[in-house]
Design goal:
It is a single chain. By secondary structure, this protein is of the alpha+beta class. Among the domains are: about 190 residues, no CATH class; about 140 residues, C8orf32 fold, CATH 3.10.620; about 90 residues, no CATH class. The protein contains 24 helices and 22 strands. The strands form seven sheets. It has a six-stranded antiparallel sheet with strand order 10-13-9-4-18-17, with no helix packed on it. Keywords: Membrane, Transmembrane, Transmembrane helix.
Length: about 750
Amino acid sequence: MSAAGTEQVRDRIPWSGSRILALLGAALAIGAPLRTMYYLSDVVGDPTLFLALAALSFVGATLLARVLRPPLAVGVGAVLFAGGLVAYILNLSTNPAVTELLGDTAALLTGRSLLQIAKVRLWVLSFAPAPVFLTWYFALRRWYVTATVAAGTALAFFALTTDAGVVTTLLGVVGIAATIGFGTLDALSTDEPADLTKRPDAMTGSDATEPADDDSEGIDAGRRAVLEQLAAIIVVPAALSQVPITRDSLLSYDDGSDGQTVEGSLFDAGESLSVQGSISLTPEIRYTVESEEPRYWRVASYDRYTGNGWVRTGTPRPYGDQRLDSPPGETRTLRQEFRAESTIGTVPAAWKPVRYSGEPSVSVASEGGFQPDGTLSTGDSYEVRSELLVATPDGLREAGTDYDDATTELYTQLPDSTPDRVEERTAILTANAENPYETALVIERWLQDSKGYSLDVDRPGFNVADAFLFEMDEGYCVYFATTMVTMLRTQGIPARMTVGYTSGQRIDENQWVVRGLNSHAWVEVYFPGQGWVQFDPTPSGPREEVRQQRIEDANADGSSPTVGDGNPVEQYTPSDTSTPAPLTETTSTETEPTETPTATETDTPTSTTEASDTDEGTELRLPALPSREEMTLGVVALLGIAAGARRSGLSERAYRAVWLRYQRRVDPETDVERAFQRVMYVLATDHRSRRSGETVRAYLDAIEADDRIQRLAALRERLRYSGEVDEAIADEAVEIADGIVSDR
């Protein structure tokens, strides 16, 4: 057939049910990467433009599907992709931009999230039109395999970057399977074989060039085979989606208790942090620290808030033993020496570190801290010199709001889905604050006073900060810090989420033991001319009490922890308190809310633990309700199982097995007929089926049926010809049938 003739045939193809289902599958296949791109766009700004571009791509594909030939459509897709690529490159800040693009691409293909790219919104807007257009165009043309290639490539890319979650990826896989499966059925139901170069019977190994077999039984068998395969493809990923799947961490922080530990939920030297629900503690010793004073031992900070977690943008650069920049304000030097007491993958240090020496080698994170290139083994040590900011309340008040554009763009970002009520509540609470410093103090103290502390929480299914602010009464450090950063950003104040360890347990004049349960999250706020200043909105009292209890519980088993060369961990009692020095140095003696925030993390003999659920293991916790995505996949799985069972004959065989072995009594006439049919089913299975036109007596004689079966046939003849049967006859018939079935 000529090309023109083929086009005419395609235009006349009816919209069968299989074709509609194939198009729905294609929509689901491209919908999975679209869902991911919408999420990325929403995190960094208003997704309206992205939705408009996606809609235009769908409309364009729909309008052009009947008039544009496939080679030209591929050209349109290529132009869309190339145009987006050029637009993205032209808006990159580095020179040469192509080098940055290639570096980002290589990183993305090895597991780096798109959220770590500064201009992710521009990337999404540039990338979206091409796969949407190509997928929908070829689906409408009934080139189903080609359509799934476009959608599948986009989905595979987002799976590689880890931006497409398990549920989203599986939904995309289901859509691809549905498109191919129902597309094949569409081809089976018409004379035109869709986009397959061979007819559908090629799948069974027959000659594709021969005319299709018009036998309806063969077509039904082909349809059944396709649906069985489709059902299996749907069921397997849908079932797998119900299995907890998490990305493997570099290190395990699990202490053997139920639930994830505080430390494990905060960081594993990774680039992202997901807010968890209920978590536990580990008293395992991680470091011993020699320092002239206790500080918060900072590990990392995160700048991009996603609504349910945090991401650190930017690319680390190698540390070449050069001195890093000090904070812009007045500083003083602090030397610290850390010794690893377990295998671990972080290099904590007081902010702001400027020099590092030791093993392993480190890189400089985008925010200016150190991160290891490898892992630390027990006994490894390193030294850090930090420049501590010396700031006064007056200096912070007078810092002003002259933020540079880069700081404002990066550290005031909020997901577009953040409800307006967060900003409204914050504005009311801070109405009397006259500058960012006072605003930060008001928010910090309000959170400390109004929210309780607990590790036993249900993770909200929507924006964490909004949920904690309006729906939750208590939470742990991650919830407090996330909410404070969000509230500050609604007021245009640059802030970021920071994680690390509190000072730890003091065991000597200048020595501290840092445990996993000292892991903590706090807030850093930027002040022009000063730098980043630390605030801690988490109430310290309840946290310290539970932390101490966790250590006592761990020591109750009779084992005494040691550090270094086997030295036992013993509490050091100084002449003064062991409260860490203020987070910012201050000479002010004010006691009003104008004081600079101080670190209240202290590890005296009566307070050395971070939050714990002391009733862990005894409290019954109800499982969380499944999400909408999980419920959707559950329904898909059930439908797939039902379809597979039906098409494979499993449901019919199960029904027959029950029907054969159990006869519910109704009335004598029905009971006799049912008993006879049960026996005939057994005979057909064990011998052969009764042929068309063959009488019952001739059939029974041919298979040499025994006297019991002959008697049952006689009882049925009495029913059919005389219509007179009573309860006794029915009992006899059922008893004969039960005996024959049980003898198999």
